[in-house]
Amino acid sequence: MTYVAPPYRCFSAEQHDQLIGLFKVTDGATHVLLLELLQNVSSLHPRWRDMPPAIDEPIESHRQRLAGISKSATHLARELEREPLVYTLLLEDLCKGGRAGFYTALHEADTWEGDLARVLHVIARGADRLAKDPGALRRARFEPDARNVPRKEVWEPVLALLRKLERPIGFSKKGPVVQIIHIIHDAVGMEAPSPESLRTAIKEFKEGAVRKRRGARASKKVRRAPRDTA
Length: 230
Prior knowledge:
Blueprint: H1 13-22, H2 28-49, H3 59-82, H4 86-94, H5 102-132, H6 134-140, H7 149-164, H8 176-188, H9 195-224
Helix pairs in contact: 1-8, 2-7, 3-5, 4-5, 5-6, 7-8, 7-9
């Protein structure tokens, strides 16, 4: 009886079956690893194609505003830490609700007095990080860098799985690696990858793997070196 792969997440039955063949899946354990890859890619699919940007503001003006927020929040937190009348300032406004809200105002003033400076420091650090890290800011805005998403979220996980399964990794326009990546791009609604970008990514992935192996061998030689007893 011939096994027919079912549809899985955003992959059709035909795409699932093609990937089983290209990854040379012949046992259940290997199939589980493939399904994990497909699940991870499918779970990111709405972020790439369907989820609208959370913020319409251009990213550069947003970055500048966050840098200003970080600076202002840091300054205000330091000033509040030096100010002895923070509790009075809070209570002055909170008590405007009259006698009925007086005890609530006392509780809120007590709570907020200790939290204000700490929260401002947290906001300052977070705003500073996003202002200095464009990748983190894009992720927070649900705008992943279009140049890096395919490589980091599709190509590199595919290459890592192929290496784990001890399958050959190389660039050929009609080879299995390129076919796998084209199928995944099609399933998640991404444009076909640039051949040159894909060739470069595969080359750099293989070079990185070689460097790791050399480093591991060098580390073993150092550990095995005999001690000088002279």
